[in-house]
Amino acid sequence: MTVQQVLLLLLLWMWLPHPCHTEMLFRRTPDVRPKSFGGRTSGNDGKAIHRQKRGWMWNQFFLLEEYTGSDYQYVGKLHSDQDKGDGSLKYILSGDGAGTLFIIDEKTGDIHATRRIDREEKAFYTLRAQAINRRTLRPVEPESEFVIKIHDINDNEPTFPEEIYTASVPEMSVVGTSVVQVTATDADDPSYGNSARVIYSILQGQPYFSVEPETGIIRTALPNMNRENREQYQVVIQAKDMGGQMGGLSGTTTVNITLTDVNDNPPRFPQSTIHLRIPESSPVGTAIGSVKATDADTGKNAEVEYRIIDGDGTDMFDIVTKKDTQEGIITVRKPLDYETRRLYTLKVEAENTHVDPRFYYLGPFKDTTIVKISVDDVDEPPVFSRSSYLFEVHEDIELGTIIGTVMARDPDSASSPIRFSLDRHTDLDRIFNIHSGNGSIYTSKPLDREISQWHNLSVIAAEINNPKDTTRVPVYVRILDVNDNAPQFAVFYDTFVCENARAGQLIQTISAVDKDDPLGGQKFFFSLAAVNPNFTVQDNEDNTARILTRRNGFSRHEISTYLLPVVISDNDYPIQSSTGTLTIRVCACDSRGNMQSCNAEALLLPAGLSTGALVRSLPIYNIVSYNDEGGGEEDTQAFDIGTLRNPAAIEDKKLRRDIIPETFFVPRRTPSAPDNTDVRDFINQRLKEHDTDPSAPPYDSLATYAYEGNDSIAESLSSLESGTTEGDQNYDYLREWGPRFNKLAEMYGGGESDKDTS
Q1: What is the 3-state secondary structure (H, E, C) of 311-326?
Q2: Peptide bond into 694 cis (omega under 30)
């Protein structure tokens, strides 16, 4: 704050009513009561009590902000008409800042401010005053509320929210065009004097711009300001309070103004005539050269479009506009021939694509130039009869079959013979070959559409007299489909059937895929390889089929897995088919068919379980592969599962018939287990022996050992306890299940007991 400003503030303060002489008196008011009020009331002693209203009248205290004196600033005085001046009354102050910012002399009622106060922090303070009898501490006046209002002084300069503003306005704008509005704020009290009244003025940027004093709107002040002459302007705006009068405080901000472009300049060619040259051998589409018209504008206002509007080569050449460089690229439209024509003349026009109607008077917004193109003579390479070739051939053709022929000639008068070759980079597998003399392309390896449906070759033609003078042509070979692939399952199916399944219940929906692509689309048929007593397949005639059960109830303890061969055929010629095998697990399910468990649990056996009965009780799984050439379920060459029925047979080592063992091992003799051996201990012992015995058969079999535990309330769930019964189990029912169970019927229906007699 300058010295002049301080002096001005002091003068203003002297002319204002001085708040330091304010006195607030506690005066008795006449006992005026509404007519509805009783005049007197009786106390406990029966004496009349006169109702009195409070004896002081309140006005606001006023206090000037930013007091700089060394003593406490005097605010005002509280006085009650009950005060006789004998010190019997005590004045008490409470409320905003009482005791800290404001203190009161309890004897005289004088109020002082203890520190400098800023109105911009708080404009008024609400306090409460009370006068009490010092001896009895009883109030002599009711507590009343009053306000200390802080008077403002001009101690805050206007401020802009931004130090630097950025704005823009189109060039060539008329005088008075609004650019941007800047607004300054003043923290002083706008309701008191002119401390917060702001006036705007321009300190820098004239004569190009002006500012409205009251609003801060910056406007253009000169007509036809041209961006091409000057683009950037810096304007400094001042905001001054006190209505802009002398002594007011001020703040400034900077506004960077950019003139944006308008299309007020037409394009211009720097030359009236342009010369270009091109060899006659240039293929169609070759770029000859470029022309460019300059435009002083920028962005879309400088965009031009080029066209050929006249000349003797309008049908021989094209011109395209390159957007990123705003050039006109002249290209070859038709093949050139030096012997036919050696010089062409074109008239090229460049025109703005975005013309502003306001500036038509500055046009026209286009220009022209003359382009002369000279054709140079060259030794021309061979010319193919086509720009590309397409050959179609079926994938099952024999080796050496000609799939098509390319032709080329020497356009020169010498008419040199032509030699053809294949670019081996386009035929790395050497599937094709070409006759060098006549251009016939033939196969050298079998074709397979499922491996590659298209072959993109490049054939080279060269003059025999000048082998370096070559021409290439693309040859596209499309391989046509024949039905040489059989359909297969679309995915791997993890199929299960519930033990409580009913006949006719859906357990799986299957679909198929085929690598072939027949013209009429894929059509598959599903059937079983042979009649199955447990399951059947129902073709949905939409390339899917349903697997259904044929009987009620399954037992995972008897048979935990079924293998179901399904034959899938297509509808093309020749018909292709394959057999896919579904592995169907038997699982325990809840009443709604949700799978719960698919493991075959072992049951608790009597203490006298024999070794033979135990071996017979363990589930043995033989994995049999099915295909079109296999023997199906009748193929038991994997190994003889009959050897597992008797422990003695296990000890008698037999070699596998499906593979040749690399090493012959001496069969290991294992001691017989006592009759009272616990099942768990027996299983653990046998597992340990097999883990360490490399000769333990069978090599490709999976033996599952499950143990139910002791004292199951379900008791025995299978025929394992038959080992302790007097009679043998009857397995004759296996013969009723069809030919697939004949082998099991032979193994278990012989009548001999498998019980261990040791």
Answers
A1: ECCCCCEEEEEECCCC
A2: no
CA 91 to chain centre: 73
User: For residue 19, what are its two tokens?
Assistant: 């708040």
Rounded-to-integer distance, Cα 690 and Cα 482, Å? 52
Q: Tens digit of pLDDT for each residue in 697-720?
A: 554 555 555 545 555 454 454 444
How many residues belong to the chain? 758
pLDDT tens readout for residues 333-351: 999 988 789 999 999 999 9
Let me know: does 342 contact 373? Beta carbons within 8 Å: no
Q: For a pLDDT cut of 90, what percent of the chain falls above it?
A: 44
The continuous run of DSSP H or E covering 614 comes out as: helix 611-617
**pLDDT number for residue 591:** 84
Percent of the chain clearing pLDDT 70 (strictly above): 74
Query: Which among 729, 732, 755, 752 is positioned nearest to 744, based on CA atoms?
Result: 732
- Give the H/E segment covering residue 656: none
More confident residue, 295 or 377: 295
Q: For residue 603, how many C-alpha atoms fall within 13 Å in the half-sphere facing its CB?
A: 18
- Across 347-356, 597-606, 672-681, the highest mean pLDDT is recorded for 347-356
Residue 610, CA distances (Å) to 344, 711, 749, 757 in order: 110, 20, 20, 8
- Say whether pTM exceeds 0.70: no
pLDDT given for residue 33 in this prediction: 33
**What are the angstrom distances between the C-alpha of 3 and each of 11, 64, 353?**
13, 19, 64
Distance, in Å, from the CA atom of 64 to the CA atom of 676, rounded to the nearest integer, reads 112
Q: For residues 65 and 117, give the distance between their C-alpha atoms in angstroms, rounded to a whole number.
A: 5
Tokens of 473: 């042509």
Q: Report how far residue 711's alpha carbon sits from residue 695's, in angstroms, rounded to the nearest whole number.
A: 36
Q: Tokens 């006109």, residue?
A: 328
> β-pairing, 525-528 with 620-621?
unpaired
What pLDDT, on the 0 to 100 scale, is given for residue 60? Answer: 72
- Tell me the DSSP string of 236-252: EEEEESGGG-TT--EEE
- Contact indicator for 382, 408 with CB cutoff of 8 Å: yes
CA distances (Å), 100 to each of 39, 91, 103, in order? 43, 16, 7
CB atoms closer than 10 angstroms to residue 494 = 10
* Residue 539 CB neighbours (<10 A): 13
How far apart are the C-alpha atoms of 663 and 97, rounded to whole Å? 105
Q: What 8-state DSSP symbol labels residue 587? A: E
Tokens representing 411?
């356009």
**What's the rounded Cα separation, in Å, for the pair 563 and 581?**
6
* Average pLDDT of span 12-20: 44
Residue 595 CA from chain centroid, whole number: 37
**Mean pLDDT, rounded, of the chain:** 79
- Distance in angstroms (rounded) separating the CA atoms of residues 325 and 369: 18
Per-residue model confidence as pLDDT tens digits over 211-231: 999 999 999 999 999 999 999
DSSP 114-136: -S---TTT-SEEEEEEEEEETTT
Residue for token digits 């930013």?
A: 66
Say which residue, 296 or 43, is predicted with more confidence.
296
Burial of residue 647 (number of CB atoms within 10 Å: 0-12, 13-18, 19+) = buried
Strands of 124-133's sheet in order across: 61-64, 144-151, 124-133, 89-95
Q: What was the pLDDT predicted at 415?
A: 79
